[in-house]
Amino acid sequence: MTFSRKRVGVLISGRGSNMRSLVEAARAENFPAEIALVLSNVADAGGLDFAQKQGIATAVVDHKLFGDREGFERAMNETLVAHGVEIVCLAGFMRLLTPWFVEQWRGRMLNIHPALLPSFRGLHTHARALEEGVKIHGATVHFVVPELDAGPIVVQAAVPVLDGDTPEALGARVLAQEHRIYPLALKLVASGAARIEGARVRVEGEPEAPDALLWPRA
Ligand code: GAR
What we know:
Elements: E1 6-12, H1 17-25, E2 33-40, H2 46-53, E3 58-60, H3 69-82, E4 87-90, H4 99-104, E5 109-113, H5 125-132, E6 136-143, E7 153-160, H6 167-190, E8 194-197, E9 200-203
Parallel strand pairs: 1-2, 1-4, 2-3, 4-5
Antiparallel strand pairs: 5-6, 6-7, 8-9
Helix pairs in contact: 1-6, 5-6
Glycinamide ribonucleotide (GAR) binds near residues 14 and 18.
């Protein structure tokens, strides 16, 4: 049986630790996707250096050089298409996307968000989780739809909130989980095991569900 890996374009704006976790996962021989391009809207994004050193194609499309959002997105889209990208992964990509761009990649674009969506959409999620006093926080990988930080959820990881947590301490524990769930979500989507069915993503061969997560434990 021939095995063809899906070509993935990862969009970053900064340090790119999630991109790195995808690159590392895609080194496995049986991983169903390869990282074909790392694209940044920020010329000195830390993650670009790492990608170049790995021999991965990189590109910069600087939003500041475009008069409008549409021109910027058309340039990004052309770059993605030119590299034969089939799946887009937003990984700390800090630009809002227009419905036009989202439509180009509907059902083929994932995002990672540092909260258990639909709670805490937007920015400063760890500080807001602490302010609200939630006991369980986490991270989500979801398909991108025009509405910000919404769309069918592929994988979530839950992280307990501890007494004395700071946004930084909690954020570090969430980030460690982000690095686990993004490769998993990409694997499920690229292999075709995860499929959108209405508002929900169904995953083929899902193991039996564990008991509920309780925190603090009784
Ligand atoms: C990650 O925590 C990611 O979830 C978050 O930005 C960080 C990027 O870190 N994304 C968002 O907040 C998107 N709304 P990274 O560059 O090291 O992957």
